[in-house]
Design goal:
This protein is α/β, with parallel strands linked by helices. The protein contains seven helices and 15 strands. Strand 3 and strand 4 form a beta hairpin. The protein starts with a strand and ends with a helix.
């Protein structure tokens, strides 16, 4: 059994699909029903005994400066590449902290903190069983092990969510291959591509099962309005 000792929260992106809100506020700091999205992640981690937390910032980075004061044990890491690279650059700048680590996005809402349980057997991703068609990344799992991943989705598979756990051994591999891909100029990929596609054969990954209602990933204004009706005026204005 492995145990997560630290966490990396990705929070460097611009969040264009939530304009105009993100013109002045980074997406993870947007309030949903009165609570900033990133707070649900940080507080969920702390409830699970994970206090060593690294938040990777980039866009409007100065707005995150209060977090280390609010949450002792939290450290900010600046990603200077966020404008020119995909989020592999965020993992690259935080790569020294990948051992016994949980990686998650700061722009999702955690409703059930049990999905951040630090205990795990295999490195891998939180996932939700999906009967119907989805356009999200979909995993085929056999005997608890991820066999492949479809970028274009499908049905009757495990939908990948952006919460993952990495053992000491796999964290070192992830660090090595992230450095390799980034330093050779492969900067337009998601960091998840490193283990799920570029070097999949070097890992044995599993899933952490959860329910769809445990978490919400908000990709656009329409999805935000479904969760917090107070933003409806912005949706109507955009229309």
């Amino acid at each position: 059994m492995n145990t997560v000792k630290r966490a990396i929260i990705m929070a460097a992106g611009v969040g264009k699909r939530l304009h105009p809100l993100t013109l002045e506020t980074p997406k993870p700091l947007i309030k949903v029903n009165g609570t900033r999205m990133i707070d649900t992640a940080i507080e969920g981690l702390r409830k699970n005994g994970i206090n060593e937390i690294y938040v990777v910032t980039g866009y409007l980075k100065e707005q995150f400066l209060s977090l280390p004061i609010q949450y002792p044990g939290l450290t900010l890491i600046e990603n200077p590449f966020y404008e020119s690279c995909n989020n592999i650059s965020s993992l690259y700048v935080a790569r020294e902290h990948l051992s016994d680590c949980m990686i998650l996005d700061g722009d999702q809402i955690i409703y059930n903190t049990e999905i951040l349980d630090p205990r795990f057997t295999l490195s891998g991703y939180n996932a939700v069983w999906c009967e119907e068609n989805t356009n999200e990344w979909l995993l085929r799992v056999e005997n608890g092990i991820i066999k492949n991943c479809s970028r274009t989705g499908g049905s009757h598979g495990w939908q990948l969510y952006s919460i993952s756990r990495w053992s000491d051994k796999d964290g070192k591999k992830l660090k090595k291959w992230t450095e390799y891909e980034f330093n050779r100029g492969n900067c337009d990929i998601y960091w998840d591509d490193v283990a799920m596609f570029c070097h999949f054969e070097d890992f044995t990954l599993g899933i952490h099962k959860m329910k769809k209602e445990d978490i919400i990933e908000i990709d656009g204004l329409d999805e935000l309005v479904q969760v917090d009706f107070s933003y409806e005026k912005l949706l109507n204005k955009n229309d």
